[in-house]
Amino acid sequence: MMAICAGCNIMDKNGTSNAQTGTPYTIKGTPRHASRIVALQVLYQLDQTGATAETVLRQFDEEIVGSTLEREDESNNGPNNCKWKHVNVEFIKQLVHGVVESRRALNEHIRKHVLENFDRLPILLHEILELATFEMLYIGTPPPVAINEYVEISKDFFNEEEHAFVNGVLDSVGKNVVSTEKRAAPSQS
Q1: Could you tell me if residue 53 is inside a domain?
Q2: Domain for residue 12, yes or no?
Q3: Residues 109-160: pLDDT tens digits?
Q4: Could you tell me where the DSSP H helices lie in 112-159?
Q5: Neighbours of 99 (CB within 10 A)
Q6: What's phi and psi for 75, nearest 5 deg?
Q7: Among 66, 81, 100, 185, which residue's beta carbon has the most beta carbons within 10 A?
């Protein structure tokens, strides 16, 4: 399992920490993509430390949010150069609070699509599934968008077998969401 934590000490799928290599952890992609990764980090820290969402969000706000995502100056090397900009703080809070508050319902929903060993999933993999499912069920993110985003995120932390797993589970969840929307649409008219 890969470790992910607050600040810049991030481990990649090979178990190498950016603090060990001296290179900054940079996130490519949209502000929304970066926000999803921050939300994943917050959830991971919550699960590892037992801290409250507010405490961890405040810590991330102090340490990370509002600084720069990419290196501004190539001479700025070192493990403390992992900084973020253009993250959507409200979206991060919506994801974190939504997953925390809906965790039981999300897990019941995900469990239907995981054939076995649900309780033995690595924490980070479980959180990726929770975030994507939350987006599809409660925010209304179109399933293809949520699936693509979270499969891409899983590639940063896991090997091919795990991203295929994430893709399969989320595809099943997404089909269920679309099916439910189609059934619910006529009664709303």
Answers
A1: yes
A2: no
A3: 999 998 778 888 999 999 999 999 999 999 999 999 999 999 999 998 888 8
A4: 123-134, 143-157
A5: 23
A6: -80, -10
A7: 81
Q: How far is Cα of residue 90 from the mean position of the Cα atoms in its chain?
A: 15
Q: For residue 153, give the CATH number of its domain.
A: 1.10.940.10
> Which residues touch 114 (CB under 8 Å, ≥6 apart)?
121, 129, 169
Number of domains within the chain? 1
Mean pLDDT, the chain, rounded, equals 76
Distance CA(25)–CA(110), nearest Å, equals 30
Coil, helix or strand for 17?
A: strand
> Distances from the Cα of 61 to the Cαs of 10, 128, 158, in angstroms?
17, 21, 26
Question: What CA–CA distance (Å, rounded) separates 71 from 24?
Answer: 8
Q: What is the pTM of this model?
A: 0.75
Query: Which two structure tokens, joined as six digits, stand for 150?
Result: 């979270």
DSSP assignment of the chain equals: -----STT--B-TTS-BHHHHT------S-HHHHHHHHHHHHHHHHHHH---HHHHHHHHHHHTTTS-SS-SSTT--SGGG----S--HHHHHHHHHHHHHHHHHHHHHHHTT--S-GGGS-HHHHHHHHHHHHIIIII---HHHHHHHHHHHHHHHS-HHHHHHHHHHHHHHHHHHHHHHHHHHHHH-
**pLDDT, mean of residues 155-168:** 90
